[in-house]
Design goal:
alpha+beta, Nucleoside Triphosphate Pyrophosphohydrolase, about 10% strand
Length: about 350
């Protein structure tokens, strides 16, 4: 078919030289696919090299501690990916002798591997004819074939999967999957694509109907939730501080943070100082408290906007479980807290 042949030819001429494309090793392909979920290639590339250097085999990753994995993942976001990555590595290493399942259906049984990732591994590593469907694929197919089905609806994926399977070269499914994803990433981009230079422009229905910027159809996301975090940097007479592990489910699970009070809105010094007197974070008497950032820092997640303030609290004596600045840097933090710690060494001095 002209669509498939043109796509493959374009890919072979224009594809980026990415390290996970130079191998059929399912471990490396799996790592790359997990890392690139919700992440741009440029951002994910350094993490891929860091992981494959530190953990060159699935056994190395399986034998690491969760904190080691989270620390190396720090800054990549969506930390549940890292926790699932670690658990799946342990299952493959310890229960499967380090051998990844060789089919789409069996890959789906592994934690953290959904339909898209399973299809990618199965087609790239084992040449199984199963289509990948991600945002790039939705965009290319919806525009070329003028499909107006809402891609925010779960059932839509089946429609696009069936179409992709029909178009796929069954003898080389990995090439087709790589090609259509790369085409969406480089050529058929979300905003203002250069349709004049597109190899598929003669058959693209969206271009003919002047609907390129209207497709794919996607209903609006749910309203973003605003949350207000007040972090307390306690400092004793030895310049030691304390941190805690986020054990509850939700954002940043099993990462570390400073003692926290979450409020309903941005609160002033008087309100916060009263709150901290009522909390039993530590037994030491408070000497002074000050704002380290008067204007809250806004950290945007996909479904939440966090309004973050840091407060410096100096206390008498020594904190029983206090740690110094250098030790602090070794823990896995959400990137917004790690960046604060890294840039605020002087703030840790009384």
């Amino acid at each position: 078919m002209n669509f498939t042949n043109s796509l493959a030819k374009w890919y072979l001429q224009n594809k980026r030289d990415l390290p996970w494309r130079n191998t059929q090793n399912p471990y490396f392909i799996w790592l790359s696919e997990i890392m690139l979920q919700q992440t741009r290639v440029a951002q994910g590339m350094p993490y891929f090299f860091a992981f494959t250097t530190t953990f060159p085999t699935v056994f190395d990753l399986a034998n690491a501690s969760e904190e080691q994995v989270l620390k190396l993942w720090q800054g990549l976001g969506y930390y549940s990916r890292a926790r699932n990555l670690h658990k799946t590595a342990q299952k493959v290493a310890f229960e499967m002798n380090g051998v990844f399942p060789k089919s789409y259906v069996e890959l789906l049984k592994l934690k953290g591997i959904g339909e898209y990732t399973a299809a990618a591994i199965a087609s790239f590593s084992y040449n199984e004819a199963v289509p990948v469907v991600d945002g790039n694929v939705f965009r290319v197919l919806s525009r070329y074939f003028d499909i107006e089905t809402d891609i925010a609806i779960a059932s839509t994926k089946k429609e696009f999967s069936e179409l992709a399977f029909e178009l796929m070269d069954k003898n080389n499914p990995g090439l087709f999957n790589q090609a259509i994803m790369e085409f969406g990433a480089l050529q058929c981009v979300p905003k203002s694509p250069n349709c004049l230079s597109c190899v598929l422009n003669s058959g693209c229905l969206a271009l003919q109907k002047k609907k390129v910027n209207l497709l794919p159809v996607k209903s609006k996301k749910l309203k973003v939730r605003n949350r207000y975090f007040n972090y307390f940097v306690f400092l004793d007479e030895q310049e030691n501080t304390i941190i805690q592990k986020r054990s509850e489910k939700g954002i940043w699970h099993n990462l570390y943070e400073f003692p926290l009070i979450e409020t309903e809105r941005v609160e002033d010094f008087e309100f916060i100082s009263k709150q901290i007197q009522e909390q039993l974070f530590i037994e030491n008497d408070i000497i002074s408290m000050s704002e380290l950032n008067v204007i809250p820092q806004i950290h945007k997640l996909s479904h939440q906007h966090l309004h973050i303030k840091f407060w410096k609290v100096t206390v008498k004596g020594n904190i029983d479980i206090g740690i110094d600045y250098e030790a602090l840097l070794q823990f896995p933090f959400p990137i917004v807290i790690y960046n604060f710690v890294e840039k605020s060494k002087n703030s840790f001095k009384n």
